Amino acid sequence: MEEIKIDAYGKINLSLDVIGKRENGYHELEMVMQQIDLKDTITIKETDKDIIVDCNNRNVPTDSTNLVYKACELIKDKFNINKGAYIYIDKKIPMAAGLAGGSSDAGATLKGLNEMWNLNLNEKELMDIGVKIGADVPYCIMGGTALAKGIGEELTKLNSFSNKLILLANPNIEVSTAYVYNNLNIEKIKEHPNTKEIIEGVNKGNIEKVLNNMVNVLETVTINKYPIIQKVKEAMIKNGALGSLMSGSGPTVFGIFDDINNVNICKDELSEYIDNLFIVKTI
User: Fold this and answer.
1) Is 91 noted as a catalytic residue in this protein?
2) Which of 62, 175, 237, 259 lies in disulfide reach of 53, CB 3.0 to 4.6 Å?
3) What is the pLDDT of residues 150-163, one digit of tens each?
């Protein structure tokens, strides 16, 4: 039986702006996404007919609500595949953390099934399937550094922002993305990221430009409900982070550092009240 293993990398937001709301209720976004080397691993084996999802984390649903299950179901239906798949998720990315773990798992599953069933789909075709599962899935398939617009599905690849030293701090709280967007008052947002400057900073390798313009407008809602996020951001800056921001709708906070000693000092301090801490790099 053929077995395919594929990495599913997490992401952070170097910026996240909400610039409007569509008639269908979805928010119009503009954000710079960055892949990190914190990853889940997806293992896929072919079965006779059923889709079976399994995971090392018991909190992860393994039924048809899982995005991995949905990815497999979509591929089977679209291409009339009469086989099934056993898909094992080795979970390292925290759940509901603003790091796109579920979306990345789904993207990796699409890539793996494309290979296993010899579908010969190119990246664009996989991304077109992925957007039916979730707005972040196409980005997770493409990876790297990208500008995302629309609901997150309109992607423009940017120059690499790789090899930056990052500390991730994930408070043990689950933030509902729906709650954050439902409580966001676009008119009351005082500070927006300068996305154009961030893109220029990334493309020209000017990290100062990136750091000086990083803003996540969703912090206005999430920090209000969970003040620990602000506490973590302040601890990171105090301990030498060049910049610190919440990723996605939270609650994970990241700091960009240029000195591993500062990272370790910051990690030690945060470990007094944060359990999930990861030293990672951008890729």
Assistant:
1) no
2) 62
3) 988 899 999 999 99
